[in-house]
Amino acid sequence: MNRTATARIAALSLCLAAPLALADYPERAITLIVPAAAGGNADITARLIGQEMGRQLGQPVVVENRVGAGGRIGTQAVARAAADGYTIGYAHVGTLVLHRFLFKQQLYDLDRDIAPIGLVAETPNVIVVNAASPYRDLKSFIDASRAQPERLTMTSADPGTTSEVGVKLFIAQTGAAVRQIPYKATAAQLSDLLGGHVDSMMENLPPLIGNLKDGRLRALAVTTRTRAASNPDVPTVAEQGYPDYEQSAWSALVAPAGTPPAVIARLNAAMNQALRSDSVGKELRSRSQEPLGGTPQDVQTQIRKELPKWEGIIKAAGTTLD
Fold first, then answer.
1. How far is it, in rounded angstroms, from Cα 80 to Cα 62?
2. 287 contacts 80 by C-beta, under 8 angstroms
3. In angstroms, how far apart are the furthest CA atoms of the chain?
4. Quick count: other Cβ atoms within 10 Å of Cβ 158?
5. Cα–Cα distance between 3 and 241 in angstroms, integer?
6. What does the angle CA 34 – CA 47 – CA 155 come to, to the nearest 5 degrees?
7. Could you report how far apart the first and last alpha carbons of the chain are, in Å?
8. pLDDT (tens digit per residue) in 111-121
9. With DSSP H G I counted as helix, E B as strand and the rest as coil, what are the percentages for the chain, rounded to 5?
10. Could you give the strand order of the β-sheet that contains 217-222, starting from the edge strand earlier in sequence?
11. Is the whole model's pTM more than 0.85, yes or no?
12. CB burial class (10 A; 0-12, 13-18, 19+) of residue 67?
């Protein structure tokens, strides 16, 4: 047999074997890379959905936290992983949209190196003050900030996060004259707010629900278009006179570009089944997160919707980072 014929037979064998290999997927544990620290909202959400996806897939989904560079280290690890379905990533509006405009140095090409699996959940941010604060609504807080510009402070997570740019959007659309202070950890923000060292805080709602329920914090507004299920008495920013304000921390699952479509479809089906399950859906809603789901194309649609808004806000704020 000549070399050409041998090559053709080998290629045919690979083609025939590929469907069988995909039919057996997954045959071992899947790593879910989370570009955030353990214990935070992203980590908790990823572990919740990963556990249920593991049941649907018949193999464990193991969370691996890769922290650093505002989430870019973890996202880069996904982009560089083998495109075989055994490494996937947890992503959000920060890593999929905001980072395009926030960082001068791009560690990967989001359109070329990452393949979407599906949307996971939408999480509201919330503006809170210490329970001892004199401010009981958004108007009194904004009016006080305008009366003494830069005296009142508002903390957020570090650059590249939804709360960090959410504060910038808040300042731009409300005219609040607050001084923004970014923090690397929610716990540090919360400690300083409860200790009276800062005046207000914008952060994901789920980690703050306990302090709101026990009366240590007072919520002035949520940042989504509709009120949060866990705190329906808290009005939105839009309801309080700023109808164009809308901002949330939506999340998605992604895979390395080149992952076989059949594998993406299998992961997408498991993700949607997980989001529909009582164990995941009810828990997310109890934490004021709305399960999303849908197709990989829905992720692309969400990205395209968000790009023009955040490009303008970030460029106007002049917050491009190295």
1. 18
2. no
3. 88
4. 13
5. 75
6. 60
7. 58
8. 999 999 999 99
9. 50, 20, 35
10. 179-182, 153-156, 200-204, 125-130, 217-222
11. no
12. middle
* Token pair of 270 as six digits: 């498991």
Encode the chain (322 residues) as per-residue pLDDT tens digits.
Answer: 454 454 445 445 445 544 545 678 999 999 999 998 888 788 999 999 999 999 999 999 999 999 887 788 999 999 999 999 999 999 999 899 988 988 888 889 999 999 999 999 999 999 999 999 999 999 999 999 999 999 999 999 877 778 888 898 899 899 999 999 998 778 899 999 999 999 999 998 988 999 999 999 999 999 998 998 888 999 999 999 999 898 888 999 999 999 999 999 999 999 999 999 988 998 998 888 999 999 999 999 999 998 988 888 787 766 655 5
Instruction: Look at the block and give the residue holding tokens 């405009």.
Output: 101
Pick from 303, 317, 306: which is nearest to 118 by CA? 303
| Spatial separation of the C-alpha atoms in residues 140 and 200, rounded to whole Å | 13
Alpha helices in 2-40 (DSSP H): 3-23
Half-sphere exposure of 18 (CA within 13 A, CB side): 12
H or E stretch at 55 = helix 41-57
Q: How far apart are CA 277 and CA 274, in angstroms?
A: 5
Q: At what angle do helices 278-286 and 261-276 cross, to 10 degrees?
A: 70
Cα distance between residue 287 and residue 228, in whole Å: 9
In which residue are the tokens 């996060």 written? Answer: 161
State the pLDDT at residue 17.
45
> Distance (Å, rounded) from C-alpha 155 to C-alpha 163?
9
User: Residue 107 has which token pair?
Assistant: 């560690």
Write out the H or E segment, with its range, that includes residue 140.
Answer: helix 138-147
